[in-house]
Amino acid sequence: MKDVFLFCTFSLCVQMIFAQTTPKSSSNSLSGTKNTKLLFVKESDTIALIKNSSHEFTTMLSKSFTSQVRVNGDTDRVPVIKGYKTTYLYEKKGKAYFKYWRFREATSSAFNTYNSPDASDPTKEYIFSMDVNEYENITRQIYKRFKGFSAGAYTVPFRLRGIGGDDNFDFESSLSLQANFIVGFGSKYNKESWFDASFGLGLTEINLTEKNSDVAAPRTASAFTFSFGGVIKAAQFVNVGIFIGMDNLGRADSDVNWRYEGDLWVGMGINVSFNKLTTNSSPKATEQNVEKVK
Q1: H-assigned helices in 52-153
Q2: Which residue in 34, 91, 145, 212 has a CA-CA distance of 20 to 30 Å to 278?
Q3: 147-158 pLDDT, tens per residue?
Q4: Is the whole model's pTM more than 0.70, yes or no?
Q5: Cα-flanking dihedrals φ and ψ of residue 253, to 5°?
């Protein structure tokens, strides 16, 4: 009972810490977009929606087929190039306003066309506008690959013990409660993570028998469990988890000579329950390479 009480207290502390450090959604958010805020500009009847998100063009359009123009330059239309990345600044009166990520080659025509006519003067950076429907239809939002931290509890239903041993191999189902620190990673084109790595600590119920320990009759014992592994999310409601870990019996059962004391095990599970990790954060605008954009 003491072990269970300590584990429950530890789990509660983990949840409280992450609950306090998780940022809350802005109260000014609109349409479910956390990065969207209201901006009252000079005209009293004008409202601009601040986006502050990163987007990548998904198609090629010549000057004749796009509404893209420079706001602080000449009014000639500028072609859209597939793969070029932009920072969506704000929306105003049906127009999307954005700027291009800087191109690495400051002397290239792409830099002079989409970034600035003068690389030495950052105040001359171009801002572009486009019909908002066109912009949102021909771009896709990009996100950070790192989706964030979380904490939660999960179980590893099946464990393989004694792998590689002469006659120690065993396959068992164990009841285990663990508190886990979880880190999510995913595609830059999706909010959700597709791989979650975890580090867990907890308690496991161990089945002691005459074959695996020095006990007179079968019984159970509690073990402290450490594990590390990950979950691959093949689909929205399908995931596969693979873990490695070790179990150590408590002091009260240290004299039973359990065969797998401190040995590594491999655990597997399908549809392992994890908290969903998502991000609304855009990646930091970095330099893009003209030659690599197609």
Answers
A1: 109-114, 132-137
A2: 91
A3: 888 887 666 778
A4: no
A5: -115, 20
